[in-house]
Every structure is written in C-alpha cells, then in structure tokens.
Amino acid sequence: VVAPPAELLAQGIDPLPSWNEGPAKQSIRAFIEGVVQEGSPNFIPVDERIAVFDNDGTLWSEQPVYFQFAFALDRLQDLAKANPALAGQEPYKSALSGDPKALAALGEKGLLQIIGLTHAGLTVAEFNAEVGDWLKTARHPRFDRPYTDLVFQPMLELLATLRASGFKTYIVSGGGVEFMSAFTEAVYGIPPEQVVGSSGKTEFVLDGDTPVLRKLPEVEFIDDGPGKPVGINRFIGRRPVFAAGNSDGDQQMLQWTTMNNGARFGLIVHHTDAVREWAYDRDSKVGRLDKALDEASRRGWLVVDMKNDWKVVYPFEKKQ
Amino acid sequence: VVAPPAELLAQGIDPLPSWNEGPAKQSIRAFIEGVVQEGSPNFIPVDERIAVFDNDGTLWSEQPVYFQFAFALDRLQDLAKANPALAGQEPYKSALSGDPKALAALGEKGLLQIIGLTHAGLTVAEFNAEVGDWLKTARHPRFDRPYTDLVFQPMLELLATLRASGFKTYIVSGGGVEFMSAFTEAVYGIPPEQVVGSSGKTEFVLDGDTPVLRKLPEVEFIDDGPGKPVGINRFIGRRPVFAAGNSDGDQQMLQWTTMNNGARFGLIVHHTDAVREWAYDRDSKVGRLDKALDEASRRGWLVVDMKNDWKVVYPFEKKQ
Ligand SMILES: [Ca+2]
Ligand SMILES: [Ca+2]
Question: Looking at this predicted complex, what is its ipTM?
Fold first, then answer.
C-alpha cells in the first residue's frame, strides 16, 4: 500500500520521481490532490474514481510493430513449420517475409487475419500459457530485452499514485484482452477483471469432464476509436474521470471522459524521444496521433512530452 | 464491513440468520470456512475468490414474467400511446393484449423484439433514469410492492457473508446489463463493474459538445447457457470458485465453476414454495430447471429447497 501523494510529499517523498518538475507533473499532482480533498470543488467520491489507460504506446512501447503482432508473427513462423502451405498464401506470405514494407502494407484486414489464425484453435488456458512463455523468451529487436521491460516507468508511478489515491485503474486498449491479461497483473498491478480490450469469439465445450473455452477465429469486438467508450460502458458501466492515451484511437475515450461535469483529466503521451524511445505522431502507421493532438489544447488535455517531461523512460534505465 | 463467518459465530452471531439449520446451511458455512483458513486443503487466495450469481430466480423472483420484461411491457404501453399503429403489429399486439397465454406464446424471438424496441433509441443515461423511475413506481401484481422488494433475504445474507470473507461477488445474468446496473449496487451491494449480462449494441455519438452513447435495437451478446462461461471469461478473466443459479441457463456456468481442481461450490435455488414465492421447475416457461437439476447430484451441487431451507424469503417478511 502506497500513501496518497499529499502524505508522501509531506514526508519529502515524491510519488512521481521519474517525472521532471514542470507543468505536466504539476497538473497531474493538482488534479489528484483536488479529487481526494473532501470539501474541494474537485472532490470525487471513491466509487467514481475510475481511471482508464490505453496500453500500446501509453503504458509500454509499440514500435517497430505492436508487441502483440510480434507475438503473432512468432506463432505464425511456428505454424508455417507445421503447415508449409501457409508460406505460399497471403497475407501470411508477406508477414513471413520479414520485410518491413510488406508488413506495413498488410493493412488492418491482413493484421486481423494473422491475429485470427495465430490466436484461434487454442483454449483460453493454452493461449494464456503460450503468451506467458513468449513473454519470457522473446526479445525486442532494438533493446534485446523482454518486451515487458519496455513499460514506461513514469506511467507505472502514475498508476500506483492513482491507486494509492483511491482510483480503480483499468486498461482500455485495442489489444487483445486475453493477450494482455497474461501480464497486466504482474507488470502493471492491473488484474484481469480490469482489462478491457478487443476480443475474438470463444465457445464453451464440455470435453468429457473437462470444460474448456476454445478461441475461434472470428472477431467479436474491436476496442478502438468509438469502440472505447462502448467498451467502457459495457465492461465498467461507469464514466471514467481520468483517461490516458497516445493516439487517435483514444480520441473518443478522451472525449467521453473529459466532456462531462466535475474534475476530469485527459492525458496524451506524445512520443518525442527518438533517442531513448521513438519519435512519431501524425504520419505514423503505428499509433498515429493527429486529430487527438489537434483537439488536445481545445479540450485542456495534457500532452506529455516524453523527451522533456520524463526523467526516465524504462525501468531498466534506473538500474544502470 | 462485516466480520467473516467464523468470527461472527465465535461471537454468537449467525451470518446467515434467514437460513434454517440443516445440510444446506452447513455446507455453505463449511465451504467458506475452508476457503479462508490458511493451511486448509480448501484455502483459496483472496484474488481468486470470485463468486458469480445469476439474477432472475436466484437473487430475486422472476414470476409471472421476468421483471425486465414487465418493464418492457410498461414502456411498450407508453410507446403505443405515442404511436397507436404499434398496437396493430405483432408481436406488440399480443404483448399489449395482457393475455397471459398470448404473452407465453411470444417465444424468445418475440421477447427480443419487444426488448429491442422498448430499450433502443434512448441514450444509456436516459435508459438508466427510465429504469430508476420504473423501479420506484411500478408494483408487482401479486405482492403490490416495488419489484426490488422481491429479492431473496437469504441470498442477500450469502452475498454479504462471501464479501466479508474476501470474495468478489459478480452478477452473471441473462438479463440486460444496463437494466441491472440501475439497481444492483443499491439492492445487492454489487457495483456496475461487477455486473455481466446480455447487451444490445450501443454507438458513441458526439452531439455538439455532448458525447452520448445511444442504445441500438440490435442484440450484441446473450449471456445465457454456454454464453455464461464466455461472458465470465470476457468480463472477469478468471474462473470463479463459487456459482449460484436456478435454471438450465446456469448449467454451463456451474460446470465451468465446479469442474476444476480445488474447493469449488455450485448452488441451485430450487423454487419449491408456492405459498411464500412460487413452485416450478421442469415444465416452467420461465426459469426451467430440468437438465441442471438432473446433473446436480452427480456434480455435488447444492440444491437449495426454498420451502425448507429458507426461514424467510423476502426482507419484508422480517419486518411484519
Ligand atoms: Ca495506443
Ligand atoms: Ca435465472
């Protein structure tokens, strides 16, 4: 259990040590202090302190490809070994080529086909184990580290500070809910029941005396763009008071959260640091940030400048 | 905050006072005591103490029609006043006739059409307010009381006892998630984020500077039968250790919960009390209990005999 920020500050402890001093850090601190202060015009009862976070590009990196897609490509390699005919069929052929241009050209339909093929057929429990194994063994090509090392230290501190201040923290991501649930509790302290994401269909089957849920290749729900408020309503059933994202896919979630009465906070992680992480926004294929960036100043959303606002990006930098 | 059952018992306080002494009450108590006792072979860590409850017929009554359907019929009356042509079209004509036989003959398709018509068009916030108003003003035809008076006192005590013992209690019901979320927190102590149910599609619309979620007439998900384990996996992401239901629609949820290693509990509320509530099972149109009843003894599920196991059915009986 962590004490709320005001108590920590009174003890000379900064709950957000990886954030540089400045307007970004100050506005986060001021928001939380208002929310927890009874009698403040910004006070929010504990039950309503719902904070939602996008995952890819907001809590961990998403370059050169979404990490879940890197998992799917590794599984596709394995499936192609067992079934060589796959290597001749599109979109698998392009995906297996390893050519970045071919990968970029797959489009959403190609990506969904590859996700469908590589994620289906397994039971939910088998899939969970596959993701767990992959996260232990796979290495990110640029950093040669496990993908879960590439989470953002300042955002981990923000999650912990919000929870210590009575917030319930949720992930609301375009990523697959079962993929994320394999690691969010260990990595972010967010349990599976607080993960909202895209999903494929599953079916319940009784195999003798063993009940299983089998993953099917059909898409059930895409938790992106206008799908995010829909998913929030369906899974959480309350309107959040804090939302963090990094791309146009978060625009409607930010609107749904902040265009409401009472103290509300919208945050956009702007990838501005090509040295420590990556720099991209309006023209990126992955995590394009264009319309939401235009809207940010009009709506009073905090745009976090990764290069200048973050003292540390990844946890491993602290240990060096 | 309520103390766990062992502590209450030590103080001479029975946490389940509306349950008659006997094997049903004993088996519930023994299960909970094993789950919370560190070192017991039945111990379950707090994070995994997930308990799921069906709603209609398990936590409140469901006769002569599902209460949500009573709400839909009242709304249909209002809509027919504004649009008299509805009264000439099926299935609305049969539904508006008030004839029990005509209502019974509507079938699932008719019911879904009526639910679709009466629940769509509103925003989620408007719908929530409509349900709230209806629950305040509508009266159950047999008891002439608000529908929320017809909750089962012994099940309220069971919910509270489980929560006091570290369980997270969820509703997993065929009922509409937005209909239930209008009252589950006040009536059962179950917040909206712990309500899993059937749902219609919604769409996010930005109306000037007012973001709204509008309810559409299409069905999105039916949380019944094999849909219950699917919904549990999607919304909770963990396998429950305790499940309570009352009909064949709960059979797969009971299987998914209990056919697993470790201490598990399956409970079926058997409606055996025509005097205080209703008596029905294998031949009922509402809440048919047939296959799950046959399976109960084989799987070790507790079949609660409402007439003999419950000292009190409804909370208002205590006050008389
Ligand atoms: Ca993102
Ligand atoms: Ca039921």
Answer: 0.92
